[in-house]
Amino acid sequence: MTGRLPGATLRIDPNEAVAFTYRGRSLRGVAGDTLASALFANGVRIFSRSFKYHRPRGLYSLDGQSSTCLMAVDDVANVKAEITPLREGMAVAPQNVLGSPEHDLLAVTGWFGWAMPPGFYYRLFHKPWRLWPLFAGLLRRGAGLGKLNQEPPAGDFENQFLNCDVCVVGGGPAGMRAALAAAEFDLRVVLLETRPHLGGFYDWRVAPSPWGEPFYDRGRSLAGKVSRHDAIRVFPMAHLTAIFPGNLLTAVQTGRPDDGFRERYLEIRARSAVVATGCVDRPLLFENNDRPGVMLCNCAHRLARTYGLLPGKRAVFSVGNDLMLEAADDLAEMGLEIAAVADARTGGQDRRLVQRLEDRGISFLRGWLAADVRGRRDVRRVRLTRRDGRRSRWFEADLLVASADRAPAADPLLMTTARFERDRHTGFMLPVELPPGLHAAGRLLAWEEPHAIEDSGRLAGLRAAAECGAASSRDAERLSDDLRGRAASRPGQMVSRAPGRGHRSFVCFDEDVSVADIHRVAAEGFDNVELCKRYSTAGMGPSQGGMPGHNLPLVMAECRAEAVGSLPPSRVRSPLRPTLLATLAGKHYDVIKQTPLRRVQEKLGGVFVRAGQWERVQHFGHDAGAGDEIAAVHAGVGLMDVSTLGKFRIAGPDALALLQRVYVSDLDGLEREQLKYSAMCNEDGCLIDDGLITRTGESDYYFTTTSARAAQTVEWLRYHSRFEDWDFHIVNLTDAWGAVSLAGPAAHRVLANALEKRSSHVPPLRGYRETRLPSGIPVKILQVGFVADQGYEIHAPASAMTDVWDALWEAGRPLGIRAFGLEAQNVLRLERGHLIIGEDTESRTNLLDLGLGFLWDRDKRGFKTVGVPALRHTENQPGRMKLIGFKMKDPASTPPGGSIVVDTEVRGHVTSSRYSRALKQSIGLALVEEPLAAPGSPLEIFVGGPDRRRLGAVVHRGPFY
Amino acid sequence: MSAIITCPVCGPRNIYEFRFGGENRGPRPFDIRATPEQWYAYVHLRTNAAGPQQEWWYHRDGCGTWFTVWRDVTCDREVAAGEVRK
User: Fold this and answer.
1) In chain B, what residues touch A872 (CB-CB under 8 Å)?
2) Residue of A82, A414, A446, A418 whose CA lies nearest to A278
3) B2 vs A245: CB contact, 8 Å cut-off?
4) Residue range A817-846, pLDDT digits in tens
5) What residues of chain A lie within 8 A of the CB of B4, using their CB?
6) How far apart are CA A293 and CA A401, in angstroms?
C-alpha cells in the first residue's frame, strides 16, 4: 500500500490491504487502521455534518471524543469512526446529510444560526400546541443524528462477568506499572485499555526517554512484560462505562477483526481498583475551530506516527505545552511543512525544543494562539493573535493543529464520590479524596516527568495490593515518601481562547454550542455549570460531556468574571461511552424448563406455550378451542401433564406449627391419607397460593402449590418463621417429581385398571394414597376435583413419569382416553366456577372477596396465621370488589378477558371468559363492586374495538356445569 | 446494583443472588385487637432512614437462608453493627 510513511512506531501493516466501501465507492485501508484513519488515507476530509447547523466536520481526535466522527456502518447508526477498527467489507455511509457531506443541502440552517439560540425550540414552538407534532417532525429530521435501524444488529454480542483482585483502568505507563506491581504479589489483575495497544502516551513518541531508549521502545517493553504476565488479563479496546460503589466496574469492549465478538460487555468485580486514564488534549477555542483540517495535537501526531499519514501539507500549530512542541518538531522531521508554531504560554517552555523549532526555520510565537480559520469546507488561512488580541498575523495553511493544553481525563472518578480540588500549581482539578478501594495514578494526578508517572503507577499498584492482603504497605510508604520530593510539574496553560465574542467558537461539537451561546445562557441566569449544561445542552451529546467538560467551566468562569479555574467540572454519569443495547443484552440466555413428559406430548401433537419458566401444552392438534379434549373429560377420561405444580415435603417437630402459620385452615386434626384443600394469604389477606396438604408420617407432611408459587414457597415459609426457633426441614420436590391429572367420569376405572391388583388403593373423596404401579414405580395419588367431579393427581419421580403416563394411557385406551392441555383445563375449571390465582385475582383481592372465606378457620388460635388480622379488618368493610360468575344473556357472545363492567361508570372487569360447548353458553368470572355481586343481578359489559357495544350478562352463583 | 451482601453461610456474594426482605422491624406483632390503622402501619410503612439500617436478605440463588445485615443505604455499602452504634 502506498501513501503511508515508514516508521518503527507504526501500528498498521501497510502490506495487508483491507477493502471497504464509503458511499458506495470501493476504498482500501490497511490492517490496523481505524475507520477514520482509512478514510483519511483515502482523502476523505469531511466526515459528517453537525447536529444543528450542518457545519462540515472532519477528523479531530482519533479517540472518539466528539460526534464529528459518527457514521452509519453496515446500517448501524452513530458508529464512531475514530475508534472502530476497519474490517474487510465494511459498508460505510455518512449520516445527518441531505446529499453528501461535501455538499449538504441542509447547510442553509447555518445561515440562520442567529435565530436559533440555545433552547429556541422550547420557546418558539410550544404555541399553538396543536402544531407541535408538525414542528417536532421537521426539527427531528433536520437535527437528527443517524437513522435508527429497526433490525437487530448483525454480529455477536457477549457478556463477561469477571472477578479480580485489582482492576486497572488505563494501559499507559502508570497503569502498566500499577498492574505489574500488583501482579508481583500473585494477585489477579484485569487491565482495561481504550486503545488497541498498551503504551499510553509513550506509544507513538520517538523522542528519547530518560532511560535512554525512545519512549515507544520503553512503552513496548513494558507492554511485553504486562502481556506475558500470567496474573494479568489485558482487555484492549475496552472503554470503561461506569464505576459503581463496591468497585463494580463496567466496560464495553469493541471486537477487533479477528475477535469472535463485535462488542462485549464486561462487568468486573474488583477488590481494589486503580484509575490511570492519563490526560487528553483540551481543545483550544477560536472562530471556526470545527473546520475539517483543524485537529488536536495528539491526533495529528498519532496520525503520522501510528498510522503513517501526514495530517496535512502546510501546517500552523497553536499549542500549550512541551509535549506539543515535541510533536511539532517530530512532524516537521517527518516532512510536514510548518508555517508557524504559536504557544499560548508566555514563558516556561523547554528551551531545547524551542531551539530545535527555530533551527528548522519555523517562526515560534510565544504568548500567541489561534484566533480564526478561513475556508468554507477546509482550512485555507489561519489567524494567530497575541493573548491580549492586540496583534494578529494571517498564515496560509491547510492544517491547524490546535490544543490549549493537556487535561486530566478524570471522568471515571467524577462519577464516584471522589472529592476534587483545584491544584494551585498546575491549575487542574485533581482528586484529593477517593472512595475506599479506589486509587489514582500517573498523569491523571498531574505528574509529568516519566519517572514520576511510572512510580506513581507503581505506588497505586502497591496500595491496591495491600488492600487485597499483600504485604506491600511498607514498599508503598517508602515510594510515597520518595515521590513527595520529586520535581513538581510545570503549571498548566489555562487560557482557552483569544479575546472575541466567539459566535463560531464551538465549545461543544455534538450540540453546536458556541462560546457566545454560553455567554447568552449565563446572561439569562443559567450561570452555574450544571444549569448551563442542561439549558444549553453543551456536553449532553454522544460524547457524554467528555470534550466540552474541560472548557465549559473555564468559559463559565469568564462569563462570571471569576478567576479561571474557580469552577468545578459538571458531574459525570454512566455510561461514559454510548453503548448498544445489544451489547448489554449479550447472548440473552433464556432458561426454559421442560417437563419430564415433553417427548410424550410432542408425539401426541402438543402445541407448547410459555408459562413462566415452563413450556406447557396449550392444546393438542389443530383445534385451539380444544373441543374434543373438553368433551373427553366431560364424557370419558382425560390425562394432563401437571408436573409444574409445586411439590413439597416438610418434616420435623415444628412442621405443623409452620403450616398452621401460613395456611388459613386449621390442619391440626389432619389424619394420614386425608387431603385438605387450603390457601395461603399475604399480610393484606390477599390470596397468593392454594393447594393440597396431607400428612404422611408422625410429623411429616406433603403439600402442593400452584406452578407460579413453587419457586417462592421455601422462601415464604422460612421468612414467616425467621424469628422462631422452630425445628423443621423443607424439601422442594417440584423438579424431582412429576405429576399427571386424570379426570372425567371414567377416571376411577382407568386408575383402578392401571393399579391392577392394588386397585383398592384408589383413594376415596379427598383422600391420599401412596402405592406402586404394577411396574414397581412408587406413586402418590391425590383425589382432586379441579376440572371434573372425578379426578386424581398421580405424582411420581420425574424419571418414571413417561412410564406412569404410558400405564395410564394403556389402561384408558378402551375408554377413549385423551390428552388435554391448558385451554381445556381453563374451560373445564371455569364451567365448575374455579378461579386461577393471578388470572382471576389481583394484588387487592383477599380471600373473602373471592368467596373462599370458608377455608379460613377463624377459631384457630395461637399460630399467628399470616393474613388473619387483615381478614378480620376487611370482613365487614364496604366498597370491596367481589369475584362473581356470570352468564351472557346472548349465549353466543363472549366478552374478551379484561372487558370492563359498566353502568354509568366503570364497576369492575371480566377476569376470564369462554364459550362452553357443553352448556351452549358463554360464561365467565368477573371482579365487580359489591352492590353488583348479588346472584341474578344484571351486568353490562362494554366491548371496545371497531364495533363497540354493551353486552348483557347475569350474575351466577356456584358452578355452571 | 453493585453492592456485596455477606451471607452468614456462603460469605460475601453479589447482590444479584439475594432477595431483599425489608428493614428489620423486629418480631411480627400479632394482636387481633390491633386497629386497622396499626396493622396498616406495620405492613406498609417503613422508616426509610438515610443511613445505616438493619435489613433482611434471603440468599435465593444460594443456601436459602434469611439473615440480617447492616447496610448504609446512602452509599450501598455493608457496615458492621458496631460502626452503627457510634
Assistant:
1) 32
2) A446
3) yes
4) 999 999 999 999 999 999 999 999 998 999
5) 246
6) 8
- Which residue do the cell numbers 390425562 mark? A639
Percent of chain A with pLDDT over 70: 95
- Sheet strands (E) in A170-213: 189-192
Q: What is the pLDDT of residues A612-644, one digit of tens each?
A: 999 999 999 999 999 999 999 999 999 999 999
- Cβ separation of B56 and A715 shorter than 8 Å? no
User: What average pLDDT does the segment A49-58 reach?
Assistant: 87
**Assigned C-alpha cell, B25:** 422491624
Measured in angstroms, the CA of A691 and the nearest CA of chain B are apart by 22
In this structure, what are the phi and psi dihedrals at residue A174, rounded to the nearest 5 degrees?
A: -70, -45
Amino acid at A689: D
pLDDT band of A1, cuts 50, 70, 90: very low
Predicted pLDDT of residue A128: 64
Give rounded-to-5 percent helix, strand, coil for chain B: 20, 35, 45
Window 864-883 of A: residues touching B by CB (8 A cutoff) are 864, 868-870, 872-873
Is any Cβ of chain B less than 8 angstroms from the Cβ of A719?
yes
Cell 488561512 belongs to which residue? A381
For the beta sheet containing A606-611, the strands, ordered from the edge strand earlier in sequence to the opposite edge, are A593-594, A614-620, A606-611
- Probe site for chain B from A162, A873, A874, A877 (most B CB atoms < 10 A): A873
What kind and span of H or E run contains A371?
strand A368-374
Residue A818 β-bridge partners: A638
Give residue A540's pLDDT: 82
* CB spacing of B30 vs A864 below 8 angstroms: yes
- Chain A residue at shortest CA distance from B32: A869
Cβ separation B75–A873 shorter than 8 A: no
Give yes or no for a contact between A434 and A444, defined as CB atoms under 8 angstroms apart. no
Q: Which amino acid is at A900?
A: I
Mean pLDDT within A555-580: 85
Select from B1, B2, B18, B19 the residue whose CB has the most chain A CBs within 10 Å, as the one to mutate to test that interface.
B2
H helices of A380-430, in order, are 411-414
CA dihedral A135, A137, A142, A147 (to 10 degrees): 160
Supply A478's cell numbers.
517508602
Question: What is d(CA A303, CA A11) in angstroms, rounded to the nearest whole number?
Answer: 10
Interatomic CA distance for residues A256 and A205, integer angstroms: 24
- Within 386-445 of A, beta carbons closer than 8 Å to B belong to 417
Cα distances (angstroms) measured from residue A739 to each of A230, A713, A751: 52, 18, 14
Contact A868 B4 (CB under 8 A): no
What pLDDT does A50 receive? 85
Contact B30 A417 (CB under 8 A): no
How far apart are the C-alpha atoms of A686 and A862, rounded to whole Å? 21
Residue A138 has pLDDT above 80, yes or no: no
Say if the Cβ atoms of A245 and B39 lie within 8 Å.
Answer: no
Which residues on chain B are in Cβ contact (under 8 Å) with A870? 39, 43
Give me chain A's average pLDDT, please. Answer: 92
Checking if the pLDDT of A154 tops 90, the result is: no
Assign B86 a pLDDT band (cuts: 50, 70, 90): very low
The answer to whether the CB atoms of A715 and B19 lie below 8 A apart is yes
Rounded CA separation A632/A638 (Å): 6
Task: Give, for A651, the enclosing helix (H) or strand (E).
Answer: strand A646-651
Taking an 8 Å cut-off on Cβ atoms, the answer to whether A246 and B3 are in contact is yes
- Chain centroid to Cα B40, Å, comes to 19
Q: Is the pLDDT of residue A690 over 90?
A: yes
